[in-house]
Write a structure and sequence with these properties.
By secondary structure, the protein is α/β, with parallel strands linked by helices. The protein is built from nine helices and nine strands.
């Protein structure tokens, strides 16, 4: 019987008072919200210039959205930690869904088109921006319309553009993975392209592996209410782990089950991951240490 190795400690600089996550600070809203409004206003002329005038988004459109997404994540203090191999070839990316921030994070890493629920088209700002960026809105209440969207996404993938899906069909609290719908995986089977499962977890910088309670966009959350709450939150880490590719020959049902299991296992590994060891004692005070050293020198 082999003994299980204890995970190695992660060495990080002790986060000072400005990084503490003990409670959200409303003062952060004073600068975050005006900066966010500025970037929202900037997004429209940027989208018109790079997307609106084109029949379909191209590489310049994806680069512009990736640039804007990185700035938006930075405003909220979200730092990406990427593990695994980011795909370079056209693939179907299947990720667990925690928040609309998932879209911004994946857009910075994988240039491609998203498949989203039809209700998102009615969202302020995100709906029109998603439409300009070529998002495929799927109506799960209409089987024929859903099949048309899946076939359209398959053609786009076969033509050389990655497709990004959230097969749970809804958001979760980040602690567990919901059941994956099998229908979206027909995109990979039809285009004969690989599927890359991606595990997403928002973490407190002081508690690696533990899901953050503020980021999930679930239940009766409203968009503006969630943004208001997030604007006061302390910085956090979004872990993005790209898992091994799955062959299209598995078929849509097997692909859905295997991707779900792979992501669930990855989240469990994160939760059981390494503990944190700070590089210096957080209780030490530089001024107090200097005073003690001065007194010791003069007493001698």
């Amino acid at each position: 019987m082999t003994r299980r190795k204890k995970p190695a400690s992660v060495l990080v600089t002790y986060p000072g008072r400005r990084w503490r996550r003990s409670r959200p600070k409303a003062l952060r809203r004073i600068w975050r919200l005006p900066v966010l409004v500025f970037y929202l206003l900037l997004a429209f002329p940027l989208a018109v210039w790079t997307c609106r005038r084109k029949s379909e988004p191209d590489a310049a459109s994806y680069r512009a959205f990736a640039w804007w997404s990185r700035r938006a994540l930075r405003i909220f203090g979200i730092h990406l930690r990427v593990d695994g191999i980011v795909p370079k070839l056209p693939v179907l990316v299947a990720a667990n869904h925690v928040s609309y921030l998932d879209i911004l994070a994946l857009a910075t890493l994988v240039p491609g088109r998203f498949v989203a629920k039809r209700e998102m088209r009615a969202w302020p700002f995100f709906g029109i921006m998603g439409e300009w960026l070529g998002t495929l809105f799927i109506d799960r209440g209409d089987a024929r319309a859903s099949q048309r969207t899946v076939r359209q996404a398959g053609k786009i993938l076969a033509a050389g553009t990655s497709i990004i899906i959230f097969p749970e069909g809804t958001t979760s609290d980040g602690k567990r993975v919901g059941d994956f719908f099998a229908a979206p995986f027909e995109i990979a089977s039809g285009a004969v392209a690989s599927t890359i499962p991606v595990a997403l977890r928002y973490e407190d910088v002081l508690c690696p592996g533990q899901p953050d309670p503020l980021c999930p966009f679930i239940g009766e959350d409203s968009l503006f209410g969630h943004l208001w709450r997030l604007a006061a939150a302390a910085p956090l880490t979004l872990r993005v782990e790209f898992l091994p590719a799955l062959a299209p020959e598995l078929g849509r049902r097997k692909l859905a089950a295997t991707a779900q299991t792979a992501i669930a296992d990855a989240l469990q590994r994160m939760e059981q991951g390494a503990s944190v060891t700070y590089l210096h004692d957080p209780r030490r005070h530089s001024i107090r240490d200097a005073w003690a050293a001065w007194r010791q020198g003069h007493e001698g």
